[in-house]
Specification:
The chain is mainly alpha-helical. The protein has five helices and no strands. Helix content is about 55%, strand content about 0%. The N and C termini lie far apart (about 75 Å).
Amino acid sequence: MTERKPLGMPFESWIDRQIREAEERGEFEDLPGKGKPLPGEGKHLDEMWWIKQKIESEGLSMPLPPTLALRKGAEEALAQARGARSETEARRIVEEINGKIRKAIRTGLSGPPLNLMPFDADRIVSEWRRARRS
C-alpha cells in the first residue's frame, strides 16, 4: 500500500480498487477469525468500547476512583465481618474499614461524593451473634 492515490480519483474508488486487488491476490485468505462473526456484533458500543475490550483482553481491571474504591471496600468488609469466624474478627474487620472511612472523611478523596459513614461496630457484631444463634 505504498502507492499514492492518483490525483483526481476519489478516495473511495482508489480504496475500493486496492481492496479488490488485494482480494484477488488472496491477501485476506489467512486472516485470524476468518468466517467467524465479529465479537460484539449487534451490541451497542459506548465511546469507551475499545478501552474496555483492551482491558478485558489483557486481563486487567479498570481502576476505580478512590471514593468508589472505598465504597466497594466497605461493602466487601461488611460481608467479611458478617462471615467472620469470631466476634473479635468481625469487630476487627469493621474497625479497620471504619478507620479508612474516617480518614477519607477527614482528608477527602478524589472522585464522586463518598456518601459513606463509619459502621456501627456494636450493631454489626450483634447481627453476627444473632446469625450464629439461628
